[in-house]
Amino acid sequence: MADNPMLKFVGVAQDYPAKRTPGDRREDFEEIARAYAAEKAEEQSARCSQCGVPYCSVHCPLHNHIPDWLRLTAEGRLREAFELSNATSTMPEICGRICPQDRLCEGNCVIEFTGHGAVTIGSVEKYITDTAWKEGWVEPITPVRDRTAQSVGVIGAGPAGLATAEYMRGHGYEVHVYDRHDRAGGLLTYGIPGFKLEKEIVMRRVQRLKDSGIQFHESFEVGRDATLAELREKHDALLIATGVYKARQLKAPGVGTDGVVEALDYLIASNRKSFGEKVAAFDNGDLNAAGKNVVVIGGGDTAMDCVRTAVRQGAKTVKCLYRRDRDNMPGSQNEVRNAEEEGVEFVWLSGPQAFEGTDSVTGVKAVRMRLGAPDASGRRSPQIDPGSDFHLDADLAIKALGFDAEDLPGMFGSPDLSVTRWGTLRVDHKTMQTSLDGVFAAGDIVRGASLVVWAIRDGRDVAEHMHAYLKAKAPEAAKQVAREEAVA
After folding, report:
1. Which of 227, 184, 223, 228 lies closest to 203 in space, CA to CA?
2. Which stretches make up the FAD/NAD(P)-binding domain (predicted)?
3. Going from the N-terminus, what domains does the chain have, and what CATH number goes with each?
């Protein structure tokens, strides 16, 4: 019997791909880690213990077949590993880069609990599909049958919308994707900086969908270029996957002062520059951190993106002001470590009280916080520590406080589109259909601001519901065509 290639975790230490030095990283927007060599990817995959109940898969929103493609990688059967990885995820190389593995698959790896260090699942996942692209294994979608007599419209070209478009094209439908931006990808393109996700990685995914026959309508705003009712008339089924883009507001004196900006405005400007565009608000310095004292308010992944972007833009100092402590922050601990390595200072247990300055911001008046009882999220609630005011110099203050839903009924000219008290779309969770027949919704516009991997999962799920709806509708549509032809 051949030796078992797996269960090497006792003799082989955990080893992530080498990161570039912090000094090098601060100079550009390239990804911070080098790629695995084939031998190293095989070695690290072989550490998997091949659990009977794989907690890594259980805690992955996509329930990826992680132990199986790790074994295939360890055995050098990389094309099979890619095919298995691609069977459950439409963007495995993207998830491998930006998923918070420390909270999901790797954080629940059994050998992590034994003290040997988790299998480096995300890095292997990234390696598998990057190799597949390099070798030409990633091909356009081949529909299982032609169903183009029926068409599907997808509003929003973020991860949920793109995932749904891919699955619906695979079922054979004519698929149209509508997006407000001039490039598809949503926050993958314009929200996440290149040091976490280089833009070519997203653009090649989008191009594959275009090569598969999916039609993209970019710079298209529902409500301006067409109403929701007009799109319903054009398509047999619609998906709303717009995400949540409305920044949560902070109430504090001076919040409207020049130099106090929204995180997404700041990140979009930076990402547009990475495409070589002219961006007036960046070029005139409004959304450029170069030479400035920067204070970012917030503790999520968006805040981490902002502080690390500011470092790369040449900020004089970068501080992150967060009202809880490190253990109670929502962002990835890996991102905090990366930011600290790159020179970001974290001011824990602190919150803004006011923004100082007349013509433009000159500082942030802050106050110390202490943690009280847990709130509804399970994290301890921050409470102001009286008399603990302090000052931070700031030429640029970035608010990264999270996102809420926009007023879609109003924007889309569709007052009968039902929403929850949070402004997210109300759906029947058995069908993922909204209050409008044939109009489905998925991703953050339903669940609120969440992870990319959950958006992909929602896109996969809603595609099955839409497929079932359209199959049920097909006989009726065929009869209608026959009646019209008979009349003609």
Report:
1. 184
2. 152-459
3. 22-135 (1.10.1060.10), 151-245+404-487 (3.50.50.60), 253-401 (3.50.50.60)
